[in-house]
Amino acid sequence: MPIDIHNDDLKTALNELKAREDTLIQLESISKLGSWEIDLSTGKAVWSKQSYIIYGESEDVQPSLELFLSHIVPQDLQEIKGKINQVLTTKEVISDKCKIIRNGSEIRELYISAQTVFDKNDKPIKIIGTTQDITEQVALKRHTQELSNVIETSSNEIYIIDSENFHYLYVNQGACDALGYTKEELMQMDIYDINPELSKENAESLRNSITEKEKTLNRTIHKKKDGSTYYVQSFIHPIRYNNQDAFVIFDIDISKQIEDEIRLHEQSQLLNYQANHDSLTKLPNRSLFQDRLEQSIASSKRNKEKFALFFIDLDQFKKINDSLGHHIGDEVLIESAARLSKTIRNEDTLARLGGDEFTIILKNISNPKDAAIVAQKIIDQIKLPIVVGTHQLYISSSIGISIYPDDSQAKENLLKYADTAMYKAKEEGRDNYQFYSSEMTAFAFERVVMENSLRVAVKEKQFIVYFQPQYSTATDKIIGMEALVRWQHPQLGLVPPGKFIPIAEENGLIIQIDTIVMEKAMEQFVIWYKKGLNPGVLALNLSMKQLNEKDFLHKLVDTMEKLDFNPLWLELEVTEGQVMNNPELSIQKLHTITELGIEIAIDDFGTGYSSLSYLKKLPLDKLKIDQSFIRDIPDDEDDLAITKAIIALGKSLNLKLIAEGVETEAQKEFLVQNGCEQIQGYLYSRPIPAEEIEKMLETNEI
Ligand code: C2E
Ligand code: CA
Ligand code: CA
Description:
This protein is an alpha+beta fold. It has four domains: 32-133, Beta-Lactamase (2-Layer Sandwich); 154-258, Beta-Lactamase (2-Layer Sandwich); 277-437, Reverse transcriptase/Diguanylate cyclase domain (Alpha-Beta Plaits), CATH 3.30.70; 451-699, TIM Barrel (Alpha-Beta Barrel). The protein is 47% helix and 26% strand. The chain has 26 helices and 27 strands. Strands 18-19-21-22-23-24-25-26 form an eight-stranded mixed barrel, surrounded by four helices. Helix 25 links the parallel strand 25 (656-660) and strand 26. It is elongated, with a radius of gyration of 52 Å. The structure holds ligand C2E and calcium ion (CA) (2 copies).
């Protein structure tokens, strides 16, 4: 039919048709969907453009049912022919999948739908249908299926959890097998149920640590349904799963590896133990001893501590071994080792160097005397009879002692010197200890003796109190006195405090000594006041150890009440060094004392390292300028400057000032000129017994 191009309506309709056809072609191409029809009367077919593409045919070719069938793979041919017959007998749409060969070799998968069109007499006239190329979809589906099979059947545990609550979204069979739960059970749980170490808090930080990259947890514990546990290594990735943020976790059971590791570790520990210990006594051997000695040197150097090295030799051991046999000898060594280890502390090292030679590293001793005490204990212990079978054996020991760092700082020397000292002990007739340096033996001995007799002194109150007056330069009158202890030793006579106070500080006897002095001095003051004399304020030296005693305050108050002593007569001297040792505690303790109306003076001021901020917080009344600054006045420029500075500091803090150790007029003059008006020292009086003070008080009308 000729087209009337002037007919606008037709033109529009044609354009529209063309446009629809184009759209259809495009849609078919997008969906890889071709359409076709077969005229049943002629057997000829019409294919859409996409159909040609699907079958790989050129558009010049006349399509037909035969052409279609020629593409079907032989395996599918029978079935397709059957389907065609089926289509012809029904008005329904019939669909089926089949494979075709394209371009001679390429296998494609198709999804074909067809329907027969009948005329009004129900005679079939044509078949129409669509063909969709589903090769890629099928492959993808198969691939996905294969992958999920791999995941599902993997013997590793695989989980998917939601990133919010850590609920399980998926668990594989491997996980069920490992944990002993069924899939249904696990899907009701979250990861806290099987990770006993995981808390909500550390889960939070775990969540934050899983960023883009994989997160590996090298060792986590899983708890099975039966309660038993095992170790896994976990790999965690963030993923999207079912439209939500999730984590996929791959867990590998590493229990076996860890068991192996532990076994290996135990084995190497055992080997290590054997290499470092003596098999008979189980004590460290020479090699471990050398290590420990090195360590002790390093740590003592760091902490500025002393340690003692003992070299111990059993005196009659060789005789026992030779006459009674090795078996008995071994028992003696074992028993001796046990006794030695009883005498030392955990942190000390006892080693057996070989034969009957033992060494001890005695850590952190404050004084050679400490070593002497332990040595004596060892000697006493070893001397006790050793019973082996029917034998009762007696041995003794000779001990040589070297001290780090006094004798040497070198490992080899310390051992050599202790050895040398041990031979000295043998020469001294065995059954004794000797220090490498002979002065130390004497000194340690003196300390031990001193300590013992000091204990007796405390028990028997062998102390007397001397008083040293303190003067006001303005009036030249006594304003108070310092009580200074003297030890009235039955044999040695009067022992000055410098000889025993440091020892008493160290062993704690200072507390009892100070209490004795306090009572005696207060008693004396009460007597004087009752006689109408005026000794002023009693200055008592008090160790911080005493102040820190729990019931000190009670004791002080009780004593004052018992003796009728007025708290306003009392001033306590504590040294700057002791106060600044623990300033916070001192502030607290001293406050409780000043609340009673008792004054506090800081003794030996200038020798400790006061911080200004603490000085301001301490409840102080007085600074006592240390005598070391006064001694060289007026010759030493530095001392002049320091003394002036201390006076200025005291004044700015509103404290009273007293100078001690004033021996000359020149010193007094300098102090007065610079504003320190209270003075204590030989210039006025030495510390003297109470009777002499009393005479002074009576005659001087103070
Ligand atoms: P300290 O508290 O600094 O006492 C002052 C010391 O200086 C006293 O020595 C005193 O005799 C001495 N001294 C006083 N004036 C002069 C002087 O002009 N020149 C010289 N060269 N020395 C002077 P002392 O009595 O030997 O006491 C020594 C230290 O023993 C005291 O030093 C004190 O720290 C302590 N001490 C004494 N008695 C006691 C006590 O009962 N308890 C406590 N905890 N310590 C005490
Ligand atoms: Ca003092
Ligand atoms: Ca002093």
